[in-house]
Amino acid sequence: MLDKMHILICGGPECRNSKSKQIRDKFNEEIKRLNLGDDIKTILTGCFGLCALGPHVLIYPGEKLYSGITLDDIPEIVEQHIAKGKPVERLLFKGVFDRTKFKNRSELTFFAKQERVALRNCGIINPLEINEYIARDGYEALGTVVTTLTPQETIDEMKKSGLRGRGGGGFPTGLKWEFASKSVSDQKYVICNADEGDPGAFMDRAVLEGDPHSVLEAMAICGYAIGANTGYIYIRAEYPVAVERLQIAIDQARELELLGKNIFNSGFDFDIEIRLGAGAFVCGEETALIASIEGERGMPRKKPPYPAVKGLFGQPTNVNNVETFANVPPIFLKGSDWFKSIGTEKSPGTKVFALGGKIANTGLLEVPMGTTLREVIYEIGGGIPNKRKFKAAQTGGPSGGCITEESLDTPIDFDNLVKLGSMMGSGGMIVMDEDNCMVDVARFYLEFTVEESCGKCTPCREGTKRMLDILNRICEGNGTLEDLDVLERLANMIKDSSLCGLGQTAPNPVLSTLKHFRDEYEAHVIDKVCPAGVCSNLTKYLVLDNCIGCTKCARNCPVDAITGKVKEKHYINTDICISCGACKAACPVNAISTKPEDWEAYNG
Questions:
Q1: Buried b vs exposed e over 482-503: b needs ≥16 C-beta within 10 Å?
Q2: What is the gyration radius of the CA atoms in the chain, in angstroms?
Q3: Is residue 269 classed as helix, strand or coil in its secondary structure?
Q4: Are 53 and 68 in contact, with CB atoms under 8 Å apart?
Q5: Which 8-state DSSP code applies to residue 176?
Q6: Is 485 within 8 Å of 460 (Cβ atoms)?
């Protein structure tokens, strides 16, 4: 038996849904049953990152990663791996590119291409134990700052690092701190924006659930730099696990006098409170967030004055998001030159992405700025499943735009994404293949924006609704070429005249898809077909000649529109078909097509 063994069980959201807590309990039960001693420790950690393939278990020493295990697998793992030191190879994780041999976790392609700074402790430590954070140099940066640096020296080091805000536009963090520092007031505030609302984004949630102390330490450093003694973490109530772990972390830090009065005997006082949001997307905008903390309706305010001058309760306030703060302690531990050595000249460091959509390895990853989209999608992400063709990737959520195949080799950083008509945003990245309709994608994001608009300014409140009306008409087959011109004019008007950044960026998905996929819009309005076969009013289903007559399509059709004998080609009655897609989803040989070119060949 191997001594001092650690069994790390992923406690991320997907793995929790796959019974990670029960898996930990089962490991403890089997270890006790076999009397394997007290040197084996089971730890429920934060997210490992491989969200689609859980639950995951990582065993040290040896760094062996098990994926997709069940409670029934655990006795074998304990008896063979834990007791005898022989990994159970059939249960080990095998990545898309790693199937020929079993590798250690760090050697797997998904992890080998990453460089973890913000996620450095996620999946490694027990987030409920402050001593585990301290054992990995936790709170050392805070101690160094408050005992050896002046507030201005702290700001200078942050400016020198080049860290840019990871929550949206990428404003320089050190410069933001300096603005708040220079504002004269007896009371200042630090706010952590943990109101993560983009569809498909869960980066901040992973940090808060897996490494909450890193955010607390960074907020205290920021408070020292700008002269604040109070911090607030604004987090949506839909993240109950993160809220619970944050409160535990705050209580532990207070108990060890790492928060509160006279931190490290330096004379510096700083404490943190949690404020819950109701889930409004607009509260991700810093002035709307501030209004919500004050007890008002979460609506953006005119800027200037900026929060650094007049923020929470009318006092100077610095607002950064979770990922930005998570980068702060390593900068002061390893130095700004180390941080600048990662990434690109204008975008130093790393970026965390939540990779989703049509991709083999969905989940969380952290890569150096300057990594290409091709590397993210095809090497780390494992490529597009089912041999489908890549079409586009949406970055920046509903505020971003789509990146096409011709830009796959563009280095990812703040400025390059803006040049491509998108933006970094908080880090959501949704991959789409040939079966995605880009008009429908634009409609999806605009539906979200219309639903989440606070309604304060007319361009966003009314303009986005009119844009959505036009997109609905196009998807239903009632659009015209004139609609495309009106859509584009309206989008640019909203972009130029909305009050806040959310309204100003709301048209981006429409403008981006119009630019790169105008042919799809024209097919909808001229030919009255949806090339991807998504918009039901513009889609016809056809059985191809490679049909094997398995009858699955006919058995799954809700309106009995499909006929045919066993082992013979089937046929679809288009007069009855409701274009629901059940047949295509059920077909095991991809013998059902919605492509216009297949219909042309059939009719020809």
A1: ebbeebbebbeebbeebbbbbb
A2: 26
A3: strand
A4: yes
A5: H
A6: no
pLDDT tens profile 105-126: 778 888 888 999 999 999 999 9
- Beta 317-321 vs 189-194: how paired, if at all? parallel
Q: Which among 433, 409, 435, 431 has a CA at the least distance from the CA of 420?
A: 409
CA dist., res. 222 & res. 190, Å (int): 7
Rounded-to-integer distance, Cα 211 and Cα 220, Å: 15
Indicate the residue type of 239: Y
In Å, how far from its chain's centre is CA 572? 40
The closest alpha carbon to 225, from 279, 264, 164, 179, belongs to 179
Determine the pLDDT at residue 1.
40
- pTM score of the predicted model: 0.93
pLDDT tens digits for 150-196? 999 999 999 999 999 998 789 999 999 999 999 999 999 999 999 98
DSSP symbol at 412 = P
CA 392 to chain centroid, in Å, comes to 17
* Burial bucket for residue 38 (CB in 10 Å: 0-12, 13-18, 19+): exposed
Q: Which residues pair with 571 in a beta bridge?
A: 563
**How high is the pLDDT of residue 212?**
98
Tokens 């640019």 belong to residue: 492
| Lookup result for tokens 């990995």 | 136
Residue closest to 186 by CA, chosen among 315, 280, 74:
315
Return d(Cα 501, Cα 164) in angstroms, integer.
Answer: 17
348: CB partners within 8 A, 6+ apart: 161, 162, 163, 164, 339, 340, 342, 369
Burial of 163 (0-12, 13-18, 19+ CB in 10 A): buried
Helix (H) or strand (E) holding 6: strand 5-10
Task: Say how far residue 420 (Cα) sits from the centre of its chain.
Answer: 20
Q: In the predicted model, is pLDDT for residue 339 greater than 90?
A: yes
Reply yes or no on whether the pLDDT at 2 is more than 50.
Answer: no
Supply the mean pLDDT for the chain. Answer: 93
Q: Are 164 and 172 in contact (CB under 8 A)?
A: yes
Q: What tokens appear for 433 in the block?
A: 């293949």
Q: pLDDT tens digit string along 8-67?
A: 999 998 899 889 999 999 999 999 999 988 889 999 999 999 888 889 999 999 899 999
- Kindly state the DSSP code that residue 172 receives in the 8-state scheme: B
Q: Is the peptide bond before 348 cis (omega within 30 degrees of 0)?
A: no
